[in-house]
Amino acid sequence: MTSRHAAAQALKGHLDVLLLATLADGPRHGYAVKEALRNGSDGRFDLPTGTIYPALHRLERAGLITGAWSVVDGRRRRSYQLTATGQERLTRERSNWREFAGAVTSLLERAPWPATP
């Protein structure tokens, strides 16, 4: 299994919220979303465009982001931005993640339970 494939599998179920997070600071075109995900994860989430673009289209169909075409340097690009619903979802998912991560951290860092005789 390639590291890219392993990263994609590890993100299953989390990719949508991570893509929403890449748009939290403002609109980005599709490739910039991919780069923000890669850079924001210190290269651990370097996903292929074949994973990113279908997810962006799914988020757009769900009304969580909007997309608009523009021409930059003679090339057409689609830029995406969060909708109000997308921002609400991101806020909720961040809260859920913090709660989940706190519970996992609590279990993993807890002193071992005494052995049962």
Strand order of the largest sheet: 1-3-2
Number of domains: 1
Please report which band the strand proportion falls in: under 5%, 5-15%, 15-25%, 25-35%, 35-45% or over 45%: 15-25%
The shape is: elongated
Radius of gyration: 18 Å
CATH homologous superfamily designation:
Winged helix-like DNA-binding domain superfamily/Winged helix DNA-binding domain
SSE class: alpha+beta
Query: Class in CATH?
Result: Mainly Alpha
- H/E element order: HHEHHEEH
CATH architecture label = Orthogonal Bundle
CATH fold-type name: Arc Repressor Mutant, subunit A
Tally of alpha and pi helices: 5
Return residue spans where pLDDT drops below 50 for at least 5 consecutive residues.
none
- Biggest sheet record: 3 strands, antiparallel
Helix content: 55-70%
Descriptive account of the structure:
This protein has 117 residues and is of the alpha+beta class. The protein has one domain: Winged helix-like DNA-binding domain superfamily/Winged helix DNA-binding domain (Arc Repressor Mutant, subunit A, Orthogonal Bundle), CATH 1.10.10.10. It contains five helices and three strands, in the order ααβααββα. Strands 1-3-2 form a three-stranded antiparallel sheet. A hairpin with a 2-residue loop joins strand 2 (65-72) and strand 3 (75-82). The chain is elongated.
